[in-house]
TrEMBL record:
<feature type="compositionally biased region" description="Basic residues">
    <location>
        <begin position="1228"/>
        <end position="1243"/>
    </location>
</feature>
<feature type="domain" description="ELP1 first N-terminal beta-propeller">
    <location>
        <begin position="162"/>
        <end position="322"/>
    </location>
</feature>
<keyword id="KW-0819">tRNA processing</keyword>
<feature type="domain" description="ELP1 first N-terminal beta-propeller">
    <location>
        <begin position="54"/>
        <end position="135"/>
    </location>
</feature>
<dbReference type="GO" id="GO:0033588">
    <property type="term" value="C:elongator holoenzyme complex"/>
</dbReference>
<comment type="pathway">
    <text>tRNA modification; 5-methoxycarbonylmethyl-2-thiouridine-tRNA biosynthesis.</text>
</comment>
<comment type="similarity">
    <text>Belongs to the ELP1/IKA1 family.</text>
</comment>
<keyword id="KW-0963">Cytoplasm</keyword>
<dbReference type="Pfam" id="PF23936">
    <property type="entry name" value="HB_ELP1"/>
</dbReference>
<protein>
    <recommendedName>
        <fullName>Elongator complex protein 1</fullName>
    </recommendedName>
</protein>
<dbReference type="GO" id="GO:0005829">
    <property type="term" value="C:cytosol"/>
</dbReference>
<dbReference type="Pfam" id="PF23797">
    <property type="entry name" value="Beta-prop_ELP1_2nd"/>
</dbReference>
<feature type="domain" description="ELP1 alpha-solenoid">
    <location>
        <begin position="651"/>
        <end position="724"/>
    </location>
</feature>
<dbReference type="Pfam" id="PF23925">
    <property type="entry name" value="A-sol_ELP1"/>
</dbReference>
<dbReference type="InterPro" id="IPR056167">
    <property type="entry name" value="A-sol_ELP1"/>
</dbReference>
<keyword id="KW-0539">Nucleus</keyword>
<dbReference type="GO" id="GO:0000049">
    <property type="term" value="F:tRNA binding"/>
</dbReference>
Amino acid sequence: MSWEQEQEQETTAEPMVAVTTDGCLLATDLKSGEQIQWAMVTGEELMDAPLLPHSFVAMHVAADGESVSLAAADGVVVVHELQDNVTEAVGDIEAGIAAMAWSPDDDAVVIVTAAAPVPSVLLLNRDWFPVAELPWDAPPPARPADPALTLDNQPPDGPESEIEFGAAAGVRITWRPDGAFFAVNAWDAAAGKRRINVYSRSGELVHGSDPFAALGVAMAWKPSGAVFATSQRLPEGNAVVFFESNALRHGQFTLAPADAELSVADLKWAPDGEVLAVLLTTADGAPAKLQLWAASNYCWALKDEIRLAPGSDPLLHFEWDPLGIELTLFLVHASGACYSRRYCWDTALGSGLFADNTFPVAVAAGHMVKITFLGLAVVPPPYATLELAVPPEFGPALGSPAFAPGSLALAVTGPAHVLIYEADGRGSYAGSPAAAVPLPEPLSQLQWLSQDALVGVGADGASLVVLARDAGAAFDSLSLAARVAVEGLVLRLDVSAHTGMALIQLADGRLFRYQGVGGLAVPLQVAGGRVSLPAPCEEMTSMKWNGPQGATTVVIARSALNKLYINGVCVADTASSFALHARFLLYTTIAAELVFVPWTTDVSSSVLESQVTVLESRLVERGAQLVGVVETGVRVVLQMPRGNVEVIEPRPLVKARVAALLARKNYGAAFTIMRRQRLDLNLLVETDLEAFVTDAPLVVDQLGKPDSLNLVLTRLAVSTVSLKDATADANLRIVPQISSATDAGTALRAALAKTEKTRDVAALRADDGTAAGHARVNRVCAALRTAMLARPDAAAWELAILTSLAVQVPPALEEALVRVQDLRAAMQADAVGSPSDGSLVRVVVDVGAGAAPAPHAKPTSLGPAQALDYLVFLADADELFDVALGLYDWDLVRLVASRTQKDPREYAPLLECLATLPPPFAHHVVDTYLGRIDKALAALVQVGDGEVSRAAVRQLATYFAAGEFLDLANGESTHVSLAELHDLYLRVVAEAKAHAVGQAIAAEANVPILAARVAVAHAHALVARGKVAEGGALLAAAGEHAAAREAYLAAGEWRLAFASAHALGYDVDALLEMAYEASEKLAARGKAAAAAQILVRYARDVDAAVEALLAGDEWMDAVWTARQAGRDDLVEADVRDGVVASAAEWLSTIEEKHAKWRRGVGKLAGMFERRAAAGGYHRPSHAGNESEASAADDAFSDTSSVVSGFTTSTASSSGASALSSSASVRSQARRRRKAAAKRAKAAAKRSGGLSGEAYAVAGLKRSVPSAAFTSKVGELVRACLYFGENAAGAALQARFDAYLIDIEYMYGLLDMGAAAIAPAPAAPAPTASASHLPPGFELNTVTLADGSLASFTMRPVLQHEDVSWKARSLAAP
């Protein structure tokens, strides 16, 4: 705690009034500093005896500051009006007055009479009318017999010789701040000691204390109302004791032994209750000292001491600023001089002792300085790591201690000396001061300007005093080096280690800087402009801020009103404390948050006034204050309201520390922090992937243990995780693939360029986010694996090597199992000198912190069984079993199965069977099961005729329950023939749809018959899957023209179908029959023009061709066909009649569509109106939703019924039944889902809920005519015009035009209505502005009923905006 200045004017709510030695009232306006003195009226005018100053026992200034009430010892009570300078006597108590006190709200006053032997307690209202009166010696209510309370209420009595001290001290009254109780401290004549009575506001005695010897008269109730303080003279000296509202004792603290001869004359609490002012007087009543005491964790310590010189201008009165916004103490002396001393809480922080960042914090506590090294241990106050004694002749310690740069020395300010404590070279300080330098005058806010100079504020408050020594000289050579005048009263002085300059804050907010001994205090300028603070700030410092414009000096300050300023601009109005870190500004808020601001924030005035970048915030305990931050570490020290200290390590500081360590390639320390703080270890890799891969050997060396590397490998993620310049933004984040419009445009351009070069899907997917993430993981695994294999103790890292294989994407389990094979082979080969269990040896390296791993350490065993157990932990057991099976090593498969807890009855028969099969067929069986079709086919073509026994196939059929093995097992011969193997080959190809692969493998194996069969099977498979054109081409290429003809006909490729017919040698009759067949199929598929061409070319049937064209609404093609054949009769009869009939039919269809559209729009309008009347949108609950419940049940049923193709059943029927059961369940689930969706859609449509409204909007949009429909209408209109049927054409055109106009106008209103019912927060409507409209839309407005304008879209792209379909020559009917 340090005091900031002493000045003669300050701000308060009311004047401070004192009685001068000559009997006058002295009122000081502490806002303007103006003093007014009134001479009291003579005693003859108001009372019998004159009023002398010493005759007043109490004085009170009214809350409005307009009057003062005074009580004299002889019983006279007067009120003096300050504005009118009029004194009025309001009463006279014959018994005399011993004390008087007003309630906090000025509604009641208590007077204790001086009548002997028993005084009375009088309670009066604000108009001086009596409310209650009772004698002082009235017995208090009986107290419950509680031994704990009784013992607690028996403090040690003072010496008997001091009883008279209490008797002569008079009476004191104190009110509880809420006005509910008041306490009276008076002499109990019967007990010969003092005691305290507690009364209610109504004047009832509620509690009474036991009598105490040597109890002082001074008494003051704490602002919180918890306790009230008084004094007592104990054998060890003066003490301040506390009592609760029930008059029970509640703790105490003892004053310094040097003050034992003084007496406690007065006690006054600061408005916040944190500081207690104690006035000490000599035996003759002269003020001697004014001390300020504060508590932390219930331990009281002396924070400041004002020594009052005897005889010269004695202290007349002292008072705390009642506003309590700032901790200000006012002193009024007998001469009329009024001074104010403003205090603030200050923290003495070291900058890191001996470069090990022990973070010393010092606290002055009377004749002791307590130091705690928070970087090493957290010791809650009042305890400390180190206690330095302040010699009595130089003490007590005043204000806040100051650490020299580097914390190599500590300066402690005393009343007349500054004590220097030097570091002892062992991370601590010497127990006694190295020097006691006399001060030229009392100094405040003393700080180190450099290693050889101290600077403080002079006694006048308007100058700086500099003490300096020669470089390298002893500290006792410090002497006055400079006195620097400043242009006003200095409010705050701060020397920052970041800037090396002294920052001076004046009372008017102006800022000056002082740098170097012998210089001048000059105005502070930042970026070419002067900086000032808009309000007085208790906390202030300067630093170098690394913003976008480069490093600049900034001033950070916090006012008593919790406003945080940067260069005079308020950036936070709820900041309760702040501290500096090497990369962040931290501050707490009154909302119990800890906020982090990165140093890279732009601190220009324009930016600060708009918004300050807040990186992150976290909750802390309410009322917590920042003590400090380990500037290059991660620890943040907070002091809680009750006084205890807590340390946290916030995420932003941790991430910044990790980023700094990784930048220095200190992977081991970064790993330790990340593991302790549970950070994503993937940060080690992704912060700088290229550096990590390059430094893979260094990473392995620094991590030191395979277990540590295993943790890193298993945390590798596909997503990109980055610290992203932790000095600016230490957030752990997933880096998005596209983060802005610019990125999106760049990505689209790159995609266009890539698709120009290739159409290969695999190549196009190779660079997407997932593939890139897989490549990163595999690259890191490969780099670390290479580094481990290159070490001389590579065997010690076998588990980590296996981990690097298992976490690859996809996992390299095959390579991992190969290493297990090697382990097994080495175990079998290494029969001499191996451990008793026959396992391999590996090296285990135990590396201490910071030590390099030993190149050759004592080996320990690692066998294949342990390696397999570890792989089972990392990978899926079934997948591991399959991979082992794919290596064709049946012994390894048996070992894997035994380590994965598989039932031997499941795999033993299979392995025995596979061992009896020829290797190619065994490989085919395994590869078919594993889905490696190319390998399975390649192995199958190598199997010879009669090599596979039928019995082995029967055993396979029993194990796999597969159809192909069942068919082979039912043969009559003892061995499988080559033809059966070819049939099996074709079946595998067909089921796997691997015809191209099968054909290539058969051709490469020189089996042309099999390759040809595969080609034909492929063609038939394509036709069956609907790719009839492609299948027909393959059939034609294979010479299967009959099948090709059917395929071409089904595909509508009539020309190729007739080409196949010609290849088959069809005669005229066959071609005629095929023509009618093909035309019928094409007409049914809507290809009327193709059907007409076949009928004209192959059947020479013009009538049928025209009929087909008219049926297909190809009116003008019918005209052309008839005219070309010279059949005008068909044009005038059939075609004309067909056009007229079509016009009537289409007109009816359009009228029906138009009417349906308008009905739909009307229904939707009703939905919107009902929604508005019901109060808007309310999201329906999903509880009880039948469709969702059904979907969930179906999903459960579906997933729970899936069975593996590689079943463990031992019966052939079980697998088939399971598969059929699964298919049946899935089919039922799909049917239930479809039915539920249909029911939900119908219910929504009926109810008109949001889904119903959306359904109606979607239905209306789907009814918009397509481009093909519009084109057909245009063709029909022109056909009517061709045949002179103008009336029919005009009617059709007018009706369709009206339909389109309705759609074009109402289409945008659908979106506007849907936006009106959208749930909040609604997405921006597509009609918000023209720049947000889709292509082809226009922004229009419509006037609503209230006169306002509503925007909506109009003229959507309906693909008929080009009105070329219209016949302009036709007039509307």
